Queue: 2 jobs
Job 1
Amino acid sequence: MLGTTRPNSAASADPPATGPFDRTRPRAFVAVAVAIVSNMGSLVAARSQSWATEPDLVGLLLLLVSPAALLFLLPRRPALATVLSVAATLTFLLAGHAWGPVFLGPVAVLAGVMLSGEARRARLIAWSGAALLAGGAAAVAAVLAPRLERYLIDHPVEPHGNWGPGTGSYGPGWSSGDGAWFLTTGALVAGAAWLAVVLLIASGARDRISRRVAARAAARETAAERERTAVASERLRIARELHDVLAHSLSAINVQAGVGLHLIDRNPGQAREALSNIRDTSKDALAEVRTVLGIVREGTSPPGPGTLPDDAAPLTPTWDLTGLYRLADQARADGLDVTVELSPDVGELPDHVAGVVHRVVQESLTNVRRHAPTARRVTLRVTRHDGVVVEVSDDGVVSGGPTEPGYGLLGMRERVEGAGGTLTAGPRADGTGWEVRATLPVASSPETAPPVEPVETTPADPSETGETA
């Protein structure tokens, strides 16, 4: 169909869902913050944990592994980033450095994994990394506990103040053989729980951001689809307008040219009249095409008075009795006997309904000239009941074979159905001729118009039109 495009299967496929940490800027900001806090915090923690050694150059480089993995390995290598971060953290702890701030790096990496890449894969890697970190921390705590026990036996802590589980104790105290407070089973479970909370928060944020991104993408797609639909509808409208103008005018020109060729030798006066009709029709058609192009061009207003001839058929959605009479006169000039019947209660019609009525009548008369060469009588009837009923029938011979609708009939049907009406076209009930019937709803009842008497015409004299038996 005109105005439609074939969708691109590659472009229409849903892209993998991405997270906010797929962009470099947020990862760089978090990586720098983690590097500063983990290094400074570990130096301070080493002084408060007397059994821990202060990080040397190797220790500081181990603390930088997590920020580097967060910045350079995500989102392409989330599994490698997780393994390197957890391994560097456990190595740092096994070297006897302070616990606490060192965990900021792997937690940031796991949260970054959760917030980057494809959602399902990110969750799997992040939770696997969390289990690896928790299990590794528990194993390191079990390895370090005996050594810390011996250190604190050799370096007893003198209590002062009232800080700890008992009066006169210093620090949070000890539990049976498990090491310092932060190496106890309860502390490790609490740390694992906090890690799970962080990942759940990151997962929830990821879902919320994904929904917002999906909503914005859907809104953009909807807007793009509306634009494509509007473009396709406008193309169809332009095609219908040009078809109605050109088909009607060219059909009349074709008939008049045949008349002129037939009478050019024996009746030059009739031939001259046919050529004059061709000139007038082509002039009107050219003006109408220019008007259509001017109306549909963006930013161009409809032409002012004087652009079209005074008796030219209206192109814009306006209609009155003069327009239908002129269409009938053009058909009579082609040798047809046209009877126009307008019910007294037709009155004023809304612009969009009037335009559809005019185009249905115009295309129906064009089809009579083009497809019913044996037709001699055409009846045009416009009546008003619950809506407007337009009937155009002829007395031509109906072919017995199947008929395939052309662009004109399709355009009529699109116009009528677009206005909320129905259109039927086919052989008449009595088997003689063809009938087009369009029913159009009218939203509001117009004021009663002055009565319009039906107009009957007498058959045209073949000698005047050049039609031969």
Job 2
Amino acid sequence: MVSDDTLIAIYGPMLSRRQFVASSAAAFQRPRRPNILFVLPDQLRAQALGCMGNTVVQTPNIDRLAGEGVTFRNTIANTPVCCPARAIFLTGQYCHKNGMVANDLRLRESSVTLPGLLKQHGYRTGFVGKWHLDGGPRLPGFVPPGPRRHGYDFWAANECSHEHFKNTYFRDTPQPLPVRGFEPEGWTDLALEFLETTKRDTRPFFLSVFMGPPHDPYGAPESYMRRYDNVPKPLNAYYAAITAIDDQIARLTRSLSDLGLAEDTIVLFSSDHGDMLGTHGAKLKRKPWEESIRVPGIFRYPRRIKPGRSEEALLSHVDYAPTLLSLCGVPVPATMQGADLSALVAGQSRRASDSAFLQIFGPYAGDQTPAGWRGLRTDRYKYARFEDKPWVLYDLKEDPSEEHNLAADPAAAKLRQSLESQLEAWMRRTGDAWKYNWTAPVEDAGRLYKDKTYYSVDEYLREHPQ
């Protein structure tokens, strides 16, 4: 082995002994763990972005973000409704495991979560925006410091309010504070406040920015609405809100660059579920169609992800937590059911899941969901069924707009049986069963949240027998 003295002699005056020893030690130090900025608009379907092929909506900054990283074109919401999707992000578990089988339940404080694990490994954690995991009355929306925040320390949020123009938020006291302007602008102000603290606290950070729009009631400031005067309602207002969000993406990414954080920050841009917006005669979410289950899935991480990649591989919500933990060098706990797709995200592997598992556990008259269902989405096929009968089967290659339901087609019987076997395997592997379904209209008329907090549908039904 060549000694330090010999190397210093070779390089002469370029390095002092102290400089050489310091540079050698630095070379063998563990690489700095990346920051994470997780941006999540509510109810944003994948089809409503320019980078996903939409030629009407204006999203230049999101498109630029996609061009600087990797876009997963088949990113799937396993349970396409607000609270269950958010619980999946945090726990890496399907809803029958994490308990969030309905909207407006409370996520159990004992849950092992992504922010909690990152905090244990030295991360600063921050949450800004719509939380929707605390259950109980949505308003005023204060979530106190402690275990109900599931590992987040910095806090500027509310439980759930769809008042996009005159919203309020809370920090660590029950005193409500006004959100400035249109909600995404105000949430971005607060996110930038958090990012500014990196000037004095150099620990890696995990910041989640969960915006309310484009969730209904659809709308945006007039300057954005005017851009879509020729688009029919309500799509015009939906697109206007997305363009307003796009401008906030520019502010966030500019701040990362100005602070020298861009190279070492994973930016994940996604959504909790899509929005039917009248397609197939349906509205809102909880459906198996692409407009409901398919969401944006964009990762930018300049240090490890080559720009301009487009991936057709399946990625689903349950994979987010294990993938992000792995990218940060944090061990993935055995409790998480999702796949660690960090090698796929980084372009180092082609290995991915061959299908995504879908679950809805009960009816909701408010968006015309008739009953709980299970399904799967492969690279080519979509299959969903109720407990007592098949519901939909589509060949997405031949019928990408899902106009020809093959569920009852005798010619598709063999295909249906094959997909049925795959679905049964998913249920066995994850521990799911039809017993987790509920049939009472517990989500309608605010029954689960208007009076008190519940951790399960069974708890509610014991107090309110049907």
